[in-house]
């Protein structure tokens, strides 16, 4: 029986034993393998070679030196023909090749279902990511447009306030200017009478008396002009908090997953 440490051909003991016969449990070189497969009794034997060679995995029963022909489903182990009769009698059995093919088919389907499910999940995640990024871009555009429109309203209101203030200013300045002209005109008249009084310094008292009465009469005719009320203009800002700003609010919620109609993937 082949040993794990043996590296030479167990038939000729000369060549490199790089081919393992699963039925004979022996190492063969290239030449001996060719001869072995030409022999009628062993032409159907199977070999393991190269990186797949692992002498720890035997194809023969270590107890009876018989090939493993069956798979005991109840015990989940490979058994030879003798073990099948002595130790696994009445157990649920199947042929080794049949069990391997069945298990391989099941594994292929299971792995395929996992690959398909993962592929769908990745596709859904990628589509969701692109959708999320598109949503964020659209929301940013909406916020920008909304803010721009609100700014236009604010600018329009500011222009209206300034226009109203300028109109009132023009009207009030005209009134103030007219009052100022009237006061200056009155001042000029009073200044003339004051000068006339000074010019009477060398007049005789007989001549001065009617003169002063005449000047007093002129002063009485001048009258007075009250200074108009000066308006005080102020602007009171509204106390607006961040929550009072007329912009919308963001909302984030989970999207409902579309039903795929599939069953349990596990």
Automatic annotation (TrEMBL):
Which superkingdom? Eukaryota
Among the GO molecular function terms of this UniProt record, one is: zinc ion binding
Question: Where exactly are the transmembrane stretches of this chain?
Answer: none
The reply to whether RNA-binding figures as a keyword in the UniProt entry is no
Alphabetically sorted, this entry's keywords are: Metal-binding, Zinc, Zinc-finger
Any one Pfam family here would be: zf-B_box
Task: Specify the B box-type domain's residue ranges.
Answer: 9-50, 56-96
| Protein name stated in the entry | B box-type domain-containing protein
The record lists the organism as Mytilus coruscus (Sea mussel)
């Amino acid at each position: 029986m082949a040993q794990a440490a043996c590296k030479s051909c167990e038939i000729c003991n000369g060549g490199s034993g790089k081919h393992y016969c699963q039925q004979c449990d022996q190492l063969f070189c290239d030449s001996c393998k060719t001869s072995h497969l030409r022999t009628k009794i062993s032409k159907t034997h199977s070999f393991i070679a190269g990186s797949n060679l692992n002498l720890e995995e035997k194809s023969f029963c270590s107890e009876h030196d018989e090939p493993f022909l069956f798979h005991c489903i109840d015990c989940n182990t490979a058994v030879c023909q003798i073990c099948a009769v002595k130790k696994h009698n009445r157990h649920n059995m199947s042929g080794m090749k049949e069990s391997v093919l069945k298990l391989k088919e099941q594994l292929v389907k299971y792995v395929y279902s996992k690959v398909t499910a993962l592929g769908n999940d990745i596709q859904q995640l990628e589509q969701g990511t692109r959708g999320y990024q598109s949503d964020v871009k659209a929301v940013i555009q909406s916020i920008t447009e909304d803010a721009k429109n609100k700014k236009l309203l604010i600018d329009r209101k500011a222009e209206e306030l300034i226009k109203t203030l300028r109109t009132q200013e023009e009207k009030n300045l005209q009134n103030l200017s007219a009052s100022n002209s009237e006061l200056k005109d009155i001042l000029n008249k009073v200044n003339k009478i004051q000068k006339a009084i000074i010019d009477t310094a060398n007049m005789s008292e007989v001549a001065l008396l009617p003169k002063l009465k005449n000047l007093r009469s002129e002063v009485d005719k001048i009258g007075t002009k009250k200074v108009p009320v000066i308006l005080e203009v102020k602007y009171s800002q509204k106390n607006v908090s961040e929550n009072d700003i007329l912009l919308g609010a963001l909302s984030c919620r989970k999207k409902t997953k579309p039903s795929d109609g599939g069953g349990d993937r596990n």
